[in-house]
Amino acid sequence: MHHELFFALLGVCGELIVEKRDPQKNIVTSFVFDSNVSPAMLTDGDRQLLQPILHLGYCYRRLSLFSRSPCTVVNSSGSYMSNSLYVHSVQQSIAKTLVAYEAHVASLEQRILASAMEINSNHSGGLFPFSHLLVELRAEMETFPFLCRLVEHIEKKKLHGKWVLELLQAHENSGFPEIRECARLFLANAHRVLYRQMMSWMTTAELIDPFGEFFVSSAKQNELSVDLTRVPLRYFPSSLAEDILFIGKAMKILTDDPSHHQDICRVLHSLSVQTSWNTHLVQESLESLRVQIASALGQRVVVQGQFIKWLRGIKTFYLLGEGDFFHAVVERTFPIFVQPPVQRSEGDLNHGIWSSTLREYQLDTPFSVSLQVPLQSFVYKHLHEIPAGLVLVGAPPDTQVSGLQCMPSSPPVPLACWCRHVQYLSRSFQSCILLKTPLEQTEISFVMQTEGVHVIPTCDKASVNLNSQSFVALQFQFTIVRESTVQVTARLWLTQVEKRLVHETSTLLKYSPDVEILIDYGATKDKEKRLQYGWRVHIQEKRCFECPMNLLTEVEVLSSRKGGVHVGLVLLPGVNVENWSFQKHDEDPWAYVGLQLEVKWPLPLLLTSSALVTYNHMFHMLFRLKRILYALNQTWKQSREMSAASCLLRHDILHVLSNLFLYYQMGVVDVNFNQCVAECEKTADFDVVKRLHDNFVASLAKKCYLYATTVVHAVDQIIAMAWSFCMDPSAMLQIEYRKRIDCLCTVLANTDARELVIQLDYNGYISEQRGVSP
After folding, report:
1. Start and end of every Gamma tubulin complex component protein N-terminal domain (predicted)?
2. Which residues pair with 215 in a beta bridge?
3. 19 strand-pairing partners
4. How is residue 466 annotated by DSSP?
């Protein structure tokens, strides 16, 4: 019987020891004695004594199957790839544990058989030492059931990456010594995988993560960041992940210095040989490494990269530091800005007025900068070829594209077409799409991507889903239900981290190969005369979709005015778009003229894309004020034809807008810029310079109220009223002016803009106009 018992300890059943199955799930749950063939010498007490030992054999079989199972998936090329390095680490740890267990069982069997032979040779008789087995296998009887539960949890939840680490770490401080030591050993092996990933990233500055487990990821195009969903935050601080990201980015620049590679390898090797995880030790080691690399990086970026000179150049252009230069630009472009911009306006301005003015003033800057004119309305007709204002994204190189038409393919591959120009939405817009549809099911989506204004969004090749965390989409699905009838299903999707279906309708229409989709977004008055924003869609002049939604409140990026949106179409094969237009009413179609700057590497580590977006928003505000001040100053030529009230109104408007401009440029930009430059010149440490620059950009946005919706709206209203006055100086706008200025003062009173309020109302003149005490 002892032979079968030792076979059972190694997961092999026989006649005496059999498998116990769950009748409902038809799976093995343990090993038991077969009651039909059990020896008479085994009492009920013996069976109860041996049952934990038999369960140990079942656990061995379960763990052995898991450790030998190919933890693989089939990729697109047909080859097999492991789908989790951390699960593979657990498998290897279990395999080593089982090897030690097998040796232990073999040694135990040898000793027991030798003892039995000695007893038989002495003819003394004796009992089989069951209690001795319990004592010898007490460690495995604790750890193996624990490992089985661990394996079951991993397989059931399909854990990988950080979830495996957190699962092991949860048992690192178990009250059972054997389980605690086992968990620490497994966790140390899993951490070696983490250290290898860290070393790969920190030394080579390349992201090699085929299974999506490392916390450094490239969610956006060519933009690496820390994915907190992959960081084991239960014991791994997010600051550690930021340090690792920074070191990897820095090594892209410091590749010619091998000493940094050696330091990284030395630090990670010393951490990997630790038997237990010590957060404070890891944090101190990586922080000291970051300080060392930050100092070398600062020398390369700040000093050799001439960051201070670039920063002065940014002030010159983005913050209108050279007043004479921009006065000349405004003066020379003023006749052009009377008409709305067209497709060639940007090129004409850059090759004409902008470049000639740059040559005339000979500004000393380390970079070249050009004007950017985002068209806020466009019309594309007869799309047999892709015009310069549109860009195709998402189609593989072998996909056949004819105009705005994606040819049939297997499997179907969607085609995304985006307008190159960023759209800044306000109140209403209208888009018209004229397309041809085949006699088969197909679909097209009108998409507004709101994640950022500096990256054209991408499209998932396997579906019409966008690789973006924030977008609004109107999806139109065409299904032929009868020979002359088509069902159009319209769906409104809103995605902010999670995709949500807002509204869905279905409409039956008479089939026609030519389909016109008219999308209206705007406001209507309800019975109580309140404005209600929403979507209205007409297909073939029939209203097919209507849904209330205020984009400015639903989409955070729009409500805070942190950027515009990219407007695009995503279509499946078979749809042929012939015409596409996008129209919206703007009181000033040139309001979003910006600057375009190519930042040379490695300066993007400091002059990030988000910082350039903020600088562009500052340029929008300052350049608009510069233009309207110039226009108001030009109205003096008509002063003889103006009434005294109009002349006084002109001076009042000039007083408000000129003081706003002075506050922005002198009270905010100059003060904070001089302080930032003075501090940056004292140090070459990268982290310090980056913190100073980030604080400077944040101060601009805060003190100029770039993203304070109420303040920006109040300023916009005054600028719009000033343009109305310039168009018709004889218009009686005194009442409207008082409303606008009262709105601005009320809004500023609820902010910390004490300096601006004092500058606007330094002598109590505005307070007297408003009828309030200063």
Report:
1. 3-265
2. none
3. 31
4. B
pTM, rounded to two decimals:
0.73
Q: What phi, psi does 658 have (nearest 5°)? A: -65, -35
How many domains are there within the chain? 4
Residue 605 φ/ψ region, left for φ over 0, alpha for ψ in the -120 to 50 degree band, beta for the rest: alpha
CB 227 within 8 A of CB 215: yes
Q: Residue 8's CB: how many other CB atoms inside 10 A? A: 25
**Nearest by Cα to 652 from 746, 744, 750:** 744
Q: Please, what is the end-to-end C-alpha distance for the chain in angstroms?
A: 103
Distance from CA of residue 162 to its chain's centroid? 19
| Secondary element (H or E) of residue 507 | strand 498-510
Are 572 and 610 in the same domain? no
**Long-range contact set of residues 739-748: C-beta below 8 Å, sequence gap at least 24:** 740/714, 741/652, 741/656, 741/766, 741/769, 741/770, 742/770, 743/714, 743/717, 744/656, 744/711, 744/714, 744/715, 744/717, 744/718, 745/770, 747/710, 747/711, 747/714, 748/711, 748/714
Q: Are residues 315 and 298 in the same domain?
A: no
Residues 508 and 622 in one domain: no
Tokens of 437: 């549809």
Per the CB < 8 A criterion, the answer to whether 91 and 67 are in contact is yes
CA distance 483 to 670: 70
Averaged in consecutive runs of 10 residues, what is the pLDDT profile of the chain (774 residues)?
A: 71 69 68 63 66 81 84 43 78 91 84 68 55 79 89 87 90 88 91 89 81 79 78 88 88 81 89 85 90 87 88 92 91 90 88 90 83 87 77 60 63 78 82 84 85 39 45 87 86 80 90 89 74 87 88 63 76 84 84 88 85 91 93 77 81 90 92 93 87 92 87 89 85 84 86 83 76 58
Place of tokens 């070459």: 684
Residues 115-152 as b/e (b if ≥16 CB within 10 A, e otherwise) read eeeeeeeeeeeeebeeeebeebbeebbebbbbbbebbe
Q: Are residues 245 and 359 in the same domain?
A: no
438 and 365 in a single domain? The answer is no
Give Cα separations from 738 to 56, 57, 628, 744, 745 (angstroms): 87, 89, 19, 10, 10
User: Do 718 and 711 meet the contact criterion of CB atoms below 8 Å apart?
Assistant: no
d(CA 175, CA 171): 9
Round to whole Å and give the CA distance between 750 and 739. 17
Residue 180 is assigned to a structural domain of this protein: no
Tokens 């267990």 sit on residue: 101
- Report CA torsion sign: 446, 451, 454, 457: negative
Residues 334, 590: Cα–Cα separation, whole Å: 11
Task: Tell me the C-alpha distance between 231 and 410, whole Å.
Answer: 38
Q: Which two tokens stand for residue 441?
A: 């099911």
CA atoms within 13 A on the CB side of 643: 10
Same domain, 423 and 560: yes
